[in-house]
Amino acid sequence: MGAAASTPTALQTCLNNACSGCTGCVGYPSDLLYQTKWVKPYNLAIDITPVAVVKPKTAADVSAFVQCAAANDVSVQAKSGGHSYANFGLGGASGELVVDLSNMKSFSMDNTTWQATIGAGSLLGDITPQLIDNGNRAFAHGVCPGVGIGGHATVGGLGPMSRMWGAATDHIVEVEVVTANGTIVRANESQNSDLFFAIRGAASSFGIVTEFVMRTHPAPGDVVQYTYDFTFGDAATLAKVYATWQAIVGDPDLDYRFGTEFIVHPLGVLITGTFYGNKSEWTASGIPARLPQNGNGTVVVNDWLGALAQDAQNEALYLSNVATNFYSKSLGFRRDDLFSDAATVDLFQYIESANKGTLVWFIIFDASGGYLMDIPQNATAFAHRDKVMFYQSYAIDLLALSATTKSFLTNFHTRVLDHLPSNESYGTYSGYVDMAIAEPQEEYYMTNLPLLQELKSKWDPDQVFRNPQSIKPVS
């Protein structure tokens, strides 16, 4: 247990009692190295000091901590891997209680149902080999190994295999969750089904998941990975490369087994593609002939673990576990929203000429759709079933986030919106948190928001679980 203030507050007394003298259970702002040892912010541009950080080992511990917070009118947020772009795992603002789930990493596999039971503090990089070692199984998720399942699967959980299998949240069969009054409940399609709906896309507003039961698939065999690198092209040339890629992404008949990203970076563009099948199937799909042909293209056949490792290496180009000062913008695109050739040229001309304010920036277009679109929009709180693509921009300043860097990304975002149909609500993925969104709940949850507001009134009317963009109860 960390050293509390000399005269403990009522909250500190409650947390200390809940810890029952266990070491490493609770930390306070008065503790030495509180920020680096306990808080560990991901985005250094957003300064946050939680009222305390607790590290439970059981669901009963989580329940006790939530009850302490509720009794003292303090809001709570759970932290799994801690990769929220706005530090929402730390509450998103100072003064909240952080429930750090890093001690909750249990794993087991039912060899009859092939359902995996996974602790909410588990990291994706740990889960993948556990699934392979326990029956050669897999499910859809992102590829950054340091991301925690607790946050990832409950905002959606997109990754290169999402077009084939759906989001990580679509694989949740059941959860154990601590609700706002500290009750530990199970939620699935037949038990607390309304809470189960909310957890799959909006959990941070409804409770703390302590355990997931996930359906799994047999792990793929061969995986074909395509990488195309085109450096130092002018705006017109890079725009043509993008248009070639976008035509593939916008194809309603695109093979579900193909996931792909288009990454704009300071030296040019990088296209990555992952096809879950063998090389003969890859050729038969017709995709290779449609991909750009005039750059440095390579094709590698990997096994499942090798493919995930390569995807993680590609993603580390612009995302990592290292805390930095950064800013990000994002948007989702329906098929009708994809850019015209003129719009594409305009965007690349802006990228070429704009003052970035930093040498480290990326603009990533990521294919969506496929099986994700086969699931009804109101099946889960994750609402973006109509999207065929997302974009996110990402820029890092080493010492402090500059106004120039923020303006570069903000002006690019405005330019994107100018090229889309007017008077429309496009929406974006809540995994790409952006504090500058005027109406974030509408953007993140879209047509599911009214129901989620009703459920918030039922399950957490006092907003025990709250961050700056959380769902509010019905007024």
UniProtKB/TrEMBL annotation:
Belongs to which family?
Belongs to the oxygen-dependent FAD-linked oxidoreductase family.
Q: Which organism is it from?
A: Ophiostoma piceae (strain UAMH 11346) (Sap stain fungus)
PROSITE patterns recorded: FAD_PCMH, OX2_COVAL_FAD
Superkingdom classification of source: Eukaryota
Q: What PANTHER family would the database entry show?
A: BINDING OXIDOREDUCTASE, PUTATIVE (AFU_ORTHOLOGUE AFUA_1G17690)-RELATED, OXIDASE, PUTATIVE (AFU_ORTHOLOGUE AFUA_6G14340)-RELATED
Q: What is this protein called?
A: Fad binding domain-containing protein
Q: Name one GO molecular function term.
A: FAD binding
InterPro entries in UniProt: BBE, FAD-bd_PCMH, FAD-bd_PCMH-like_sf, FAD-bd_PCMH_sub2, FAD-linked_Oxidoreductase, Oxid_FAD_bind_N, Oxy_OxRdtase_FAD_BS
Q: Which residues form the FAD-binding PCMH-type domain?
A: 46-219
